[in-house]
Amino acid sequence: MAQGHKWTLVRGTAAAAAIFVAIMATPQMAYGWGANAHRLITNKAVDTLPPDIRPFFEANRNLLMQNAAEPSDAVSRNPAAERRNRYIYLDRYGRFPFDNLPRDYKAAVSKFTKTKLEANGVLPWQIGLYSEKLTNAFKARNWDEVRQFAAILAHYVAQAHDPFATTENYDGRLSNQTGADQRFSSSLVDRYSLFFYVRPNEAVKISDPTDHAFESCLNAHSWLQQILLADRRARRGLPDYTDEYYDRLYNQAGAILIRGVSDAAADVGSYWLTAWINAGRPQLPGR
Question: What is the reported pTM?
Answer without folding.
Answer: 0.87
